[in-house]
Every structure is written in C-alpha cells, then in structure tokens.
Amino acid sequence: MIPVIALVGRPNVGKSTLFNRLTRSRHALVASFPGLTRDRQYGKGAVGGNEFIVVDTGGLSGDETGINRAMLEQSMAAVEESDLVFFMVDAGDGRTGGDEQIAQILRQENKQIVLVANKIDGANPDFVRSEFSAFGFGEPHLVAAIHGEGVNDLITRALAHPAIDSDEEVQAIAPAGIKIAVIGRPNVGKSTLVNRLLGEERVVVYSEAGTTRDSIYVPFERNGEQFTLIDTAGIRRRGKVTQVIEKFSIIKTLEAISDANVVILMLDARQGIVDQDLHLLSYALDAGRALLIAVNKWDGIDHDRKDSIKRELDRRLTFIEFATLHFISALHGSGVGKLYPSIRTAYASATKKIKTSQLNKILNQAVSEHPPPLVHGRRIKLRYANAGGTNPPVIVIHGNQTAAVPEPYKRYLQHRFIDELHLEGTPVRLEFRAGTNPYAGRKNLLSQRQVQHRRRLVTHVKNADKKRKRR
C-alpha cells in the first residue's frame, strides 16, 4: 500500500508550500494569507522510486465555530485516513499557544507523528530543536520548504527508506483516469455536486459564497473505472474580485479547466443564466474542453418556471449545441447519476481517433453540397483534410485562399464533422492551411533553363569554329 502523509499545523506555517514541493506541482495555492487551504488537497509524489500520497489540510487555530469547525473536521479526517502525520510549525515564530493546542489534539490520535520545523533559513538550529522538542514528538526535522532544503531527507527518514542522493528530485505523478472539472459561479452547488458524485463528504460544504478557494483534485474509482474530480473556486465578475487571494483562485480555476478532459458548468436554476455564466462558458470553449451543462437546484421549481428556464437556455446557448444539458439537484441527488454516461461519451468523442480517409470523405461531400464562396472572383478550394490532435478533435484542412474562409462557412463545416463523426459533448477545432503552389516560380525556372541552353549552344558553336580553323 502507498503510505499517506497528512500535513497538519497552524495557518501559514508552510503546509501548502511543502505540499507543492513534495508533489513537484503548484496545485495548492500559496500566499501569506491565514486560512488559505480549507479542504483536503491530495497529491502524489515519489522519492527513490518509492511512492507516497500527501494530504494538505486547512490551518488549525483553535476556533471551532462556523467554517473553522468544518475545516477542523476536514483536517481530522485527513489525520484519520493517514499513515503518517507531519506536524508543521514555524521555526521563526517559536512555540505558540496554537501549536500547543494542535499538539494536544494529535496526542489523542493513534498515529505516527513527525514534527517538522519549517522556515529555518536564518534560524539557530540548536535553538529550534530545543524549543520544539518539548512537544514530546521527538527532535524536529528542520526544513525550508520554499527552497527545498531538508525536504528529501525528511521524506527518506520518515518513510524509513535507504539513503538517497540529496540531489534527487521528487517526481510528480499525474491524476488518473478522466479528469472532470466542476466550474460555476460562487454558491451554485459545486462542492455539493462533487460530494454527491463521490458518495462521501470529501469537500467542505458551507453556506458561504466562496468556500472553495483552491482547485481540489480528488482521484477515485467507480465500477472499476478511474476518474479525477476537480472542485474549483467560484468565479465572480471582475469588478467584484477584490482580494488578491481570490484572483489566485481564478487563475487556479482557469488552470483546472485547461487541465481537465471534461468540464461540468453548473448553473443555478433559480437565478437563471447570467453574463458571468457565459464568461465561464467562454473559458471552457477557448480551452476546447468537452462540456456538460448541469442546471442545479431544479427541484422545487414550478412547471411554468421550468419551461421559462428551458426557453432561455435554448435562446442563449444556441452556439453550443454539442453540449449535453442536465437538470439536477445536487443536494438530493436527482439527475446526478445521469452525468456519468454523458461524461464517458464526451470523453470518448474528445479523444476519438479519426481516419484521414473518413475526414476527406466528409469534406468532399460538404464542399460538393455547399461550395465555399467566391473571394475576389476566385473560388476557395479546400482540397483535403487530416487529423491534427485530440481533446478537442483538431481537423486540419488544406487548400488555397484558406485565410479568406468566412466564419459562417467554418461553422457549417464544424457542424458537418460533428454530425458525420457522431461526436457528442465536445467541440471541434478547424485549422486551415494554404498549400504551396507547385508552379510558383516556374517562369523563372524556365528562363534559367533557356539561358543555360543558350550558353551551351554558344559554347558548341565556338568549339565547332575552332575545329574548322584548325583544319
């Protein structure tokens, strides 16, 4: 079994920095902002060929009211499921009352505790060891997570592995299976949907907009199939993004969209579709990701209101006919089970291998039935097509005057390829390339040949004259 390591400590002692260092990633947000990590954040790493799982947790401060209570529950759940706990303290702050409270909680757990003193750069090592040894967890391991100092040695000793080269890097291991990013405005029910899909309380759910500040990667298995769910922070309108940390969250959400295979855009049925929903949709479309739209909080709405919402969606989402639409209640679970078949179909369509002969057949039929328009009195010629990539499917079309292909004709071709290839839930990207003219420069080539021929004739005539004179 791969050992699980939980990172526990006060806010801002460097847990997320150590998490990023161990997983060789930037999945956890890092900033001087107490309480930044609220949920359990999972990552995988390896040292010397030995793998481990790291769990980043929210900072514990002793305040167990409101959302801090939920954060405490998440941290203790991480401790419960771990094999090893890294109790992190700040070497620069010394031993604090908050550290004492956390140490008291950890003493009650039947877990192996490793004391980690972070931020040791500039500190007196002897003073740090004597200061924190009083906790009773043994001598602290001294590290500077931001620079990586002492981190490999910490992992090696904690896992009781043979000594390794201090220069050896910790290697990242990518999430497994289909990666599904759940996006939407704040408080539309993203974390509730993630928990419903997982079947357990894995992400903090709290009635406060913006509870999720990070993008949480949750690998899991369902019926023998691998998935990774990504719960993202809610994105507000630009004018409402005031805190610097919320801007970090937006960046992480956009990165999660790019990293995902399938994106689920959640809408609030009771608020209808708003401009910010369309902005989020544009991010997913720009990334070219397979797309599902989940209209949440569908229960409890009368029939007239449901009909009105459906008409509004038809009117405002006509440009994404490929996306599958689901009406769900994440809280009660109605309609949630139908998301999985659509996720599989969208992923299969986005990663489908397409033969060149099939693409050319579709292109020839489309051009024959509806030829491209004239440009400056000349017809655009689209000669052949080939596959250029997946997720999303990329189709490269070669011809002449391809830069002048109008947008309506591009959309016509996109719809033809989607329909003929039976693609569902994924957009198609078209790339147009103008082929080189094989006859370009032919006149110059012929003139050069003529010059060479004439030179040979002149030389031949001169040689013939010389022979006659010698005779």
Report on the structure:
By secondary structure, the protein is α/β, with parallel strands linked by helices. It is built from 13 helices and 18 strands. It has 3 domains: 169 residues, Rossmann fold; 173 residues, P-loop containing nucleotide triphosphate hydrolases (Rossmann fold); 79 residues, K homology (KH) domain (GMP Synthetase, Chain A, domain 3). The strands form 4 sheets. Strands 6-5-4-1-3-2-7 form a 7-stranded mixed β-sheet, with helices on both faces. It has a 6-stranded mixed β-sheet with strand order 9-10-8-11-12-13, with helices on both faces. A 3-stranded mixed β-sheet has the order 16-17-18. It starts with a strand and ends with a helix.
Secondary structure elements and their pairing?
Blueprint: E1 4-9, H1 15-23, E2 41-47, E3 50-56, H2 66-80, E4 84-90, H3 97-107, E5 112-118, H4 125-132, E6 141-142, H5 151-158, E7 171-172, E8 178-184, H6 190-198, E9 216-222, E10 225-231, H7 244-259, E11 262-268, H8 275-287, E12 290-296, H9 303-316, E13 324-327, H10 339-350, H11 356-369, E14 374-375, E15 378-379, E16 381-389, E17 394-400, H12 407-421, E18 429-434, H13 442-470
Parallel strand pairs: 1-3, 1-4, 4-5, 5-6, 8-10, 8-11, 11-12, 12-13, 17-18
Antiparallel strand pairs: 2-3, 2-7, 9-10, 14-15, 16-17
Helix pairs in contact: 11-12
